[in-house]
Amino acid sequence: MDRRFDSHGNVVPSVQDAVGCLPGRSMSAKQVVAALAALGQETRLEVFRLLVQRGPDGLPAGAIAQALDLPPSSLTFHLQQLTHAGLITQRRLSRQMIYAADFAAMNTIMFYLTENCCGGNAALCAPQCKPEKAPASARKKGKAA
User: Fold this and answer.
1) Could you tell me if residue 23 is inside a domain?
2) Residues 6+ apart with CB under 8 A from 115
3) What is the pTM of this model?
């Protein structure tokens, strides 16, 4: 595999490295559109981000509802939409349903969106900085700090 280096001698990751390309896993345009449409709703985006932050262990539905101050019936609807879009997984643990972000699906979507980025030259479109984290109150209201 050819490696590219920046002006400081650091390896510049390829787009595939940056998004965790999964050989053999791909999505159709229709699947990507469905996933992006599901994330295009504010509550579902908040749920998905919470599950991404939590990691592969996921969270029970009750903990998600409490963390985001959502009524259980509304949360159930949003979890179904995210599950149907292939963005989250669910598993039963005793009497609880545990939901987790599907990181393979997330990375596959990122790869789909960026596979031809900058004409295939990942060095041109590699992230230059980390975005600053907005305070929780600003994120809740949809405002940047």
Assistant:
1) no
2) 15, 16
3) 0.71
